[in-house]
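Could you join me in thinking about how sequence relates to backbone shape in a protein? Label the sequence line and the structure token line clearly, so we can match residues to local backbone shapes. Once you have written the record down, we can walk along the chain together.
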Amino acid sequence: MRVNQLIINARVVGYQDLQQVAIQERKIVAIAPTLDHPPITPTINLERDWLSLGGIDLQINGGLGLAFPDLELEDLPKLEQICEFLWQQGVDGFLPTIVTTSINKIQRSLATITQFMANQEEKEDTAKVLGVHLEGPFLNYQKRGAHPAKYLLSLTIENIKQVLGDYSHIVKIMTLAPELDSSGETITYLLDKNIIVSLGHSLATASQAQQAFAQGASMVTHAFNAMPSLHHRQPGLLGAAIVNPDVYCGLIADGNHVSPTMLEIILKASNYERGIFLVSDALAPIGLPDGVYPWDEREIIVTNGTARLRDGTLSGTTLPLLVGVQNLVKWGCNLEKAIAMATESPRKAMKLPGISIGQPANLVRWHWDEQTKDLTWKRLNQS
């Protein structure tokens, strides 16, 4: 077998035993415990370190000071810089997330992202825009969190049509509160347009959530946040999601949105290969130092990577996606599971292939230091 590069003694996420990974022209061409190859093949010995694809971030609100709801055509170069920055943070692809704002701004942002995606070059070493996540404006007023109340809309097909405009083809996920439409017609409408329905910012009961899942909703947005807490007699939206084998839950692992103890509970109650994926929920100041930054007509205060409004309302993070992996391991999560939740699980939630033959060899090496108890990562340099 002719290959450009061979990786040996790798623990590959989702595979048993040590594996060898063969790369040809930046594509994975083989994964097996032993491979036949010419003796002169350039080889990287991972020495039992873990190997994965880069991360996929399905909920990120901006970067390098630019909020995605504020996108205009003149911001295309900045969006390219954000893609390069996220690649450096270990992210292969992401969904720019547009939170609740005016229909005009949503349309302008969608138009900008549409043009960017149409002109995305086959450029190497940059994160790809995979589509858009619309987080709102069809949210429950009482669970709106930091979303501005004046832009919330009732959940009707007519309102969805106005929000999507001519850009439904790039919208991959829409977060909505299912109790706003008991008929379920809006869920069916979105699914017919190949848009994944994610439940969030909601007061849905368990039965309302179960109905939405039966109608085809398949995700939950930032589990625990902006929804009722788990209760032994009222399991609510989250309880219904955890026990449903067809539902994926996004999770913010910064230690502030959800306590490490509750993270452990949901991880033990779920199958990481199916149920849980990490998101950064990062805001525009990701890549910038802590401080005070504009956020729509308001301001957010970023302290140690956590962003809050002036009134203390939690509004997001500025921590990169893979920091969540490091946090989970620090809090006792199995290393392979933690890596998978940022790399494999979001791909499965989007029905994208994970690490396998034929995939781009955008590979990340993870090293666990037993002495310092630190998990570090770096991208492998494919030649």
About this structure: The two ends are 17 Å apart (CA to CA). Residues 10 and 48 are 5 Å apart (CA to CA). The chain has a mean pLDDT of 92.
